[in-house]
Every structure is written in C-alpha cells, then in structure tokens.
TrEMBL record:
<comment type="similarity">
    <text>Belongs to the transposase IS21/IS408/IS1162 family.</text>
</comment>
<dbReference type="GO" id="GO:0003676">
    <property type="term" value="F:nucleic acid binding"/>
</dbReference>
<dbReference type="GO" id="GO:0015074">
    <property type="term" value="P:DNA integration"/>
</dbReference>
<dbReference type="Pfam" id="PF00665">
    <property type="entry name" value="rve"/>
</dbReference>
<dbReference type="Pfam" id="PF22483">
    <property type="entry name" value="Mu-transpos_C_2"/>
</dbReference>
<protein>
    <recommendedName>
        <fullName>Integrase catalytic domain-containing protein</fullName>
    </recommendedName>
</protein>
<dbReference type="InterPro" id="IPR036397">
    <property type="entry name" value="RNaseH_sf"/>
</dbReference>
<feature type="domain" description="Integrase catalytic">
    <location>
        <begin position="152"/>
        <end position="331"/>
    </location>
</feature>
<feature type="region of interest" description="Disordered">
    <location>
        <begin position="510"/>
        <end position="546"/>
    </location>
</feature>
<dbReference type="InterPro" id="IPR054353">
    <property type="entry name" value="IstA-like_C"/>
</dbReference>
<feature type="compositionally biased region" description="Polar residues">
    <location>
        <begin position="514"/>
        <end position="546"/>
    </location>
</feature>
<dbReference type="InterPro" id="IPR012337">
    <property type="entry name" value="RNaseH-like_sf"/>
</dbReference>
<dbReference type="InterPro" id="IPR001584">
    <property type="entry name" value="Integrase_cat-core"/>
</dbReference>
Length: 546
C-alpha cells in the first residue's frame, strides 16, 4: 500500500513538471511536500475529481473548486492512468537510505531482537553521520516488517473432554523463612484448577501432588502435559526427550501418557501459565492483594483450597460456565484412579508404634503426628549436607500427604515436634492435693492457703506434717477459719513450717489493727499530730511526765 501511494505521488509530481523524490534534492523534495500551490491535499484532490465528474468540463470544474483548469487536467489524467485518485506525500531522502539493507540484515540475523543503540554504533563505524533518532526509527520499521513476516499465529486449541491435563509450578510464599512451591494443575476442557502447596519439586512430592490431583478431579485423563523438568525428562538426544524411568513407572501405574512441551516455549501450555500467574497473584502476600504472611504450612494449604473453590465455582470467561459444573460432565470421560497410590518413590515403609508416635530410620528417631499411631508411613531422605532432611509421608483417602519433615537426627538424640504429641494429662507433672482421709479433708477444707501449705511443706521435707495439720484444724475451731487459712498461706510463701510458726503468724495477724481502723474518715484523720512536740526541751522523765 505504501509503495502504491509513493508511485501515485511521484506520478502526480511528474504531471506538474516536478521530478520524483528519488531524483530530487532534499530542498526540492521539501518544497514539493510542503508546497500547497503545487500539490493538493487529499481532500482538495477529491473535490477536484468530484467537480470534474459532475460537470465533465475542465474549466467548469476549475471554476467550482477555485483552481486552474490545467491543475484539474493533471489530476484527471493521473487518475485515468493509475486507476485511482493520487494521494500521499512524497518521501524525502534520508542519510540512512544507503544503510537500510544493512539494518535489515542485522534485524534478520538477531530475529528482531537487536537494540537500536547497537545498530547505530555499527552504522557509525560504517560512516553513517545521521542522528541516533533516525537510526531508532529505521530499526523500529525494520523490526515491524520482520514481525509481520515471522509472527507466530496461534490456532485455538479445541480439546475433547477427558483428554488433557497440564501442570506447572510457581514460586510460593515464605513460611518460617523457607520458600514453598505452588503446584498448579489445569484440566483443559472444563478449565478446572487444582492448586497444592509443596515444600520442594522433588520426584516424590510431584508424584504425590499428581495423585492428589487425580483423586480430587475424580479420574485420570489420557494425556498429561508439563515442562521438561529433571523429574520428567532426564536429557534430550537429537531433540528427543528421554523420560525419567521413575516417571515411566508412575505413568504406567495410572495408565496415563506424559508429554512435554518444546523447551523454552511456554505458549504451548498457556492454560497452566495463566493459572500459575493467577494463583501467585492471589496466594503470595504482596501489597497488591493485602494478604498477610502465613503462620504455618497448614494455613497455606487452607488458602490454596479456598482459592480453588473460588475460581472453580465462578463462570469462566471463555466457556461462560463454572468449571466445577463442566468437570461433572468431563468426569464421565476420565479413567478410574488406581486404588493404591504409586509409593515406590516415597521411600522406606515404617510402622508407627501404637503408644509412641516415633519411627526409626537410619539409626535415628523421628516424631510423627500422634493420630498415626499404629499406621504405616513412608520415610525418605531429601537434600545433602547441611540441607539434608528426613521426609515422612502417609497415605490417606485423598492421596499421599507429607506429615513430617525433620533435620537429620543422631543416635540417642531424637528429633521431636511438640505439635505431634497430645496435651499432657492433668496432674502428670503438677500434682493437685486430693483428700484421702477425714483429716485430709478437714485440713484442705480451710481453703487455698491450706493447699499451698501442704504442697510447699511436702517439697521442703517438713517433719510431723500430720501433727501440724491437726493443730491447724484445732486453731480453726478456736479462731476464725479464714484467718487460719491466711496464716497457712503466708507460712507457705515464707517457708515457715516449724511447730510454733503458724500460731506466731496468726497471733501477729490478730494483734495488728484491722484494715478498716487504718482508713481515714470524716471524723478521723491519718495525718501525724503535734503532740510529740510537747516534750521538746525537757531534760528529766518527771518533766516529760508532767
């Protein structure tokens, strides 16, 4: 289109006796471009041609539009020769015209990725004296032309129900300073998403996530598509991916075929790419979503489950239906899930004792949740050196679940997690006084002071405690029991457990003025008086007494 316009413009210029832009100097071309008396605008040209079509006379049409009949003749002849009205402007020659072939060559070699500043530097070496702005415009035009001829065109993927499932990974949030992984699976036909948090991308973790995904969607598809991770493809030979042997066994166990996309080509699995982007935007705490940091891995699991329910229950923008409704139809086309999960990669089996939630593995002991007492678990080693960890998995109705992760234990030093054990029974360490005889009941009935005295006196190894307890009961019958209980409490706090200590504390307590007597009132003040000044200056006791 641009070439045609250029030819039309050159023809119009030649019609008025002006050379074309290729044969003009810079000043002549500028004059032709900006000269309104030589070349008309597109609107003026159309008015001239319309007037000629209306009147059929060069002079009449020139009178109608207000120009020379020679001008009308030139545009009419140009239209008759080109088959259309002349339009466009003449392009001025530029300094970079002699280097355009080289610019196009560099853009072609770099597949449209070369930078304009690099191109300008190379052109300067070749003798180009123009500005960098001119180079940038030329490079932009060359890149646009390259993209037109090399643009990748995507054909819509129309999949069948029960055929494809894609999965990928995303960086999860930090929990206790350790980065997690988001496993995102996407069922192609129903657009159903499954998001699971993982602690790593090792083969057992991926197998466990896939098993949970199959059981959550209610079946196994025919094909699974993913990236070329080491857990899937061990290497490439002549462009052919070599599958991991353990993955082959896993696929055979679930009767599924695993495919991998072309390396460095995320567009081939755009469904999971978009799902990962959406999951990270909602689940990873950022300033944009105002989500708080997670306190535990269980909180992240709950958030992933809530996210899945949200995106699967609302209508999808393409199908206009909720994925959970479409999955109910697609589930009829899925293969049944194997009753027993694939456990070869989960490690060594161990049976948890019925009364102690601990398992032995390679001369070390590791705790598991107490609810697994009597159950079978799988134990494996993950990492090396300082990062070595012991991972323990358990099989549930929903699939394999990681239940514990410990650092390497040494013989005689087990690795324990306090959350794996139930609360200690009442009185296991802190014993509470419980009456067994009538004398015990009478003494403990005095109150909390008596209970405290019994505990502290027993810890201090006090002798004749029963005699002293009986004496306290007798004092409670003679005096106020509340005062006796108060005295017992003070005796326990200050460690006074001798025979006469209780009576001494009680006597001192009774001899002290009542707290109400030490309070100020309308007719009594607690301010110190001046009576003591009356003896000031006296020298003998008689004078003081008088």
């Amino acid at each position: 289109m641009g070439s045609a316009r250029h030819d039309i413009r050159c023809l119009a210029a030649s019609a008025v006796g002006v050379p074309s832009s290729s044969a003009m100097s810079g000043a002549e071309a500028l004059f032709v471009t900006r000269g309104r008396d030589i070349l008309k605008s597109a609107e003026e040209i159309m008015e001239i041609l319309d007037a000629y079509d209306l009147t059929g006379s060069l002079r009449d049409s020139a009178e109608l539009v207000g120009c020379s009949h020679h001008t009308v003749k030139r545009y009419v002849e140009a239209r008759d020769k080109l088959g259309g009205p002349p339009s466009g402007t003449a392009r001025r020659p530029q300094l970079i015209d002699d280097y355009l072939d080289k610019v196009e060559e560099w853009v072609e070699r770099s597949k449209g990725k070369v930078r304009a500043d690099r191109v300008h530097q190379k052109l300067v070496w070749l003798g180009f004296t123009g500005s960098e702005r001119t180079t940038r415009r030329a490079v932009a035009a060359a890149k646009a032309a390259f993209r037109v001829g090399n643009r990748r065109v995507h054909r819509p993927w129309v999949t069948e129900p029960g055929m494809w499932l894609q999965y990928d990974y995303g960086d999860g949030p930090l929990i206790d300073g350790v980065k997690t992984v988001l496993f995102v699976a996407w069922v192609a036909w129903s657009r159903f998403r499954v998001v699971l948090p993982l602690r790593d991308k090792t083969l057992p973790s991926v197998f466990a996530a896939l098993d949970v995904t199959f059981r959550r969607i209610g079946g196994v598809p025919t094909y699974v598509l993913t990236d070329n991770e080491k857990t899937v493809t061990s290497e490439h030979i002549a462009g052919i991916p070599v599958r991991n042997p353990q993955l082959v066994a896993f696929a055979s166990h679930y009767a599924v075929t695993v495919h991998t996309c072309v390396p460095a080509d995320p567009a081939s699995k755009g469904g999971t790419e978009s799902s990962v982007k959406l999951a990270k935007a909602d689940l990873v705490p950022t300033e944009a979503n105002l989500r708080d940091a997670y306190d535990s891995f269980a909180d992240l699991e709950a958030a992933c489950e809530a996210f899945g329910e949200m995106v699967n229950s609302r209508p999808h923008r393409v199908t206009r239906r909720a994925p959970v409704e479409m999955l109910a139809e697609e589930r009829l086309r899925l293969h049944p899930v194997a009753a027993a999960p694939f456990t070869v990669a989960f490690g060594t089996t161990r049976v948890v004792p019925v009364n102690t939630p601990m398992v032995n593995f390679e001369h070390g002991q590791y705790s598991v949740p107490h609810r697994l007492c009597g159950a079978t678990v799988w134990v494996r080693v993950h990492g090396r050196g300082a990062d070595e960890q012991i991972v323990i998995c358990h099989l549930t109705d929903a699939g394999p679940v990681e239940v514990a992760r410990h650092r390497r234990a040494t013989p005689g030093t087990p690795m324990l997690d306090g959350q794996h054990f139930p609360p200690a029974p009442a009185g296991a360490l802190e014993r509470t006084p419980t009456p067994r005889t009538v004398a015990d009941s009478e003494f403990l009935a005095l109150g909390e002071g008596a209970r405290l005295w019994l505990v502290e006196a027993a810890h201090a190894g006090t002798g004749k405690m029963r005699v002293k307890m009986a004496a306290a009961v007798q004092l409670a019958r003679l005096f106020n029991p509340a005062d006796v209980d108060w005295a017992l409490g003070h005796a326990a706090v200050h460690g006074r457990f001798a025979e006469a200590d209780l009576a001494s504390i009680l006597d001192h307590h009774r001899s002290r003025p009542h707290p109400q007597q030490l309070q100020a009132s309308e007719d009594k003040s607690l301010t110190q008086g001046t009576r003591g000044w009356a003896t000031y200056g006296t020298t003998t006791p008689e004078e003081i007494a008088s």
